[in-house]
Write a structure and sequence with these properties.
The complex is a heterodimer of chains A (326) and B (303). Chain A is an alpha/beta fold and 326 residues long. Chain A is built from 12 helices and 12 strands. Chain A is globular and about 55 Å long. The chains are: A alpha/beta (326), B mainly alpha (303).
Amino acid sequence: MLDRRTLLKGAMAAPLLHACGSPPTPWPRGAYRKPDRSRVAIVPAREYGPRLADVLRNGLALFDLPVNGKTIVLKPNFVEYDATGVINTHPSVIAAAIDAFRRLGARRVTVAEGPGHARDVEHIITASGLHDVLREYRAGYVDLNYDDTRRLALRSRYTSLGSLHLPETILDADLVVSMPKLKTHHWAGVTLSMKNFFGVVPGAVYGWPKNALHWAGIHESVVDINSTLPVKTFAIIDGVIGMEGNGPIQGEPKPCGVLVLSDDLVAADATAARVMSIDPGRVRYIEEGGRFLGNMAAERIVQMADSIETHRTTFRLLPPFARLRA
Amino acid sequence: MMARRPAGLATGLPIGALLGMQSTDGAWPSYAGKRAVNTEATALAVLALTAAGEVEAAERGARWLARNQRLDGSWSFTPAVDEPSWATSLVVLAMAERDRDVALRGARWLLAVKGRRLGVMASLLHRFSPRAMVVRMDPDLQGWPWRNDAASFVEPTAHALTALKRLRRELGEPAERRIMEAEALLYDRTCRGGGWNYGNSVVYDVDLPPYADATAIALIGLQESHREGRTRPSLELLRHLASKAGSGLALAWTALCLGAYGEHVEDLPQRLAHRYAETAFLGETKTLALAVLATHDPTALRL
């Protein structure tokens, strides 16, 4: 409820804000990390399978990533499993990434995920084929929903959450690779590498789904999580077969034939959205991320490998999201 | 009630692994090798080891739970996260026969907690144009949330129902009102054809699939239901899901649910042992504890 003191403070602050020209931004100056330019690679990948290892290795070579001796965490999307659907990051993309980062000299490559809906991780991991990949490559898996956590103050203030408990596996990594599926999303419009970090927030504290973040605002939470993670990040978006329509779970397969790679998650998501014929400037978390976390504007993105036009296709959108169409 | 196996008798499941994960202060972490202990794993381990006759380890776990009860009666998920958690219901169940006062304080905290309402617009839409709702549900029904600032969901609601029903004689009328409403919420969220999804039953006019673990947990909460006939399709579905349960968690919850309804899962110890040999349940304490509980006393959650 507004009291007299609050009203007086507001009345005094309004002219001051007006004099400064604009309201304060929801992030402190220290949270600004947008580079002058960003690089994004659209790598053609027509099908899943062992050939992806070469495809991904060649794609990563474009970025000169300093991963020698480093700890890498791969964060795919395993929100839920459906044998007849294309919900998850394909295990062969994860296998290719484990192989590629090891060949680049990484000291340790771990796969980590906090499924947003399903509680039955053993079922997801074994039924999806990820367990076979982990065995074959002798790679570790961490359930982020139950990882040890540390509480971090949020670096931006799009939500009123103030702080989040975040998993130590993520916080202690040298590089966290967001590996989402290229999908539409029935609450957020699209779910790509930034939204995929919803899965690092531990379900044991925030629930299945992470409904507290929905109440705080999905777009707002995405930006706050991405601004707060104190680690280097990279994006590998699995668009070999994406999902259109009623994503992220009930949508239909949409063959797209690409992997989208970038060391700027905002630029990766903006480019992936353009491939889907979606205007990234109309997806609020990408737009806000583009103000201070990375580059959304096409003229600030150096496009490597294939062009957007080569792979642009129209992802079907649910009627409430028709306004996102580029 | 099924006869309990003597402690230490081989069941194909390594009780020693569960005992080995217990920390020096008596609690359990979520996974082997994790540092932080938590209330969910500890409550389930206490239930499991009690059923398995590992009295001393169970007692040490129960003492940790009693020591870590918050002043408001709830339990945080882990001591590092200083806020009440959904796992309170599981601790109430674990403590109900050990320390009634501790359990009742937890249950009274549960009575004061409700999921967030979706708001007036959702309520009006449900009353006058329910088919226009993106998520098909009665938004006025309140059960329990995963955490205080969130809406009601199936699993925390079902766990709270089971806990309150176990103590309903001492809790009286306030508990009966909450039980009625929570049962109505679970029935409202039943998937078409029976069973429960982790979240909702219909979104954007699409039916969501039921899952074995969510269905079993909901049915355990719905024992002694005021409208028991409505659980039959879901029980039927769970019997079908039991035959193809592909994980330790699904199999253990299914066995505990059917056990609560007086039925059993065929070859349960062998199937759980087979799963454990395949995956070691990924090292998860919760699943190992539930598997041990289901093997030694499948009727443990019978009301």
